[in-house]
Amino acid sequence: MYKLVLIMLMMVVWMYIHALQIDEEMAMGALFQGKHAVNRAVHAAAQQVDVRALADGRLHIDERAASAAAARYLQNNLQLDAAGNPLPGAFLRNRVEVLVFKVINEDEIFPYHYSNPAYNYEVTLMRPGVIMIINMVYPRVFSVIAPIEWQIKGAAELVAS
């Protein structure tokens, strides 16, 4: 009888550990998906060159176009609507919030060192670029792990060819 009770107890422990491992692996996948989305968004934003400034021989990022491109890439890569809320059927369940979106243009002195102690982020840009920090919440599959919330950071420079 005691062996049956021990087997049942071990099955419960094994299922708990298995659920923990699955949730942790899915959390890492969600973090990577968020990081890739931010990297793609800032890269797309950094490529929004102001053609009038370019005609004058200046490398200048159009801030309005950059913001629109970054939002579009985040929406497409994370399956969000225009307000940052997940679409029906998307993996995420909470709103993705853009905490920082900053365009650094040629009016700054390069190399430009950006520092944001609130989000523990520093980056040095060698030419005009874009910096973005988003807040993303992992939707736990099981309630085994504590809620996870990330501030995902990214930066990209204007590629001049």
UniProtKB/TrEMBL annotation:
Superkingdom of the source species: Bacteria
The protein here is known as Uncharacterized protein
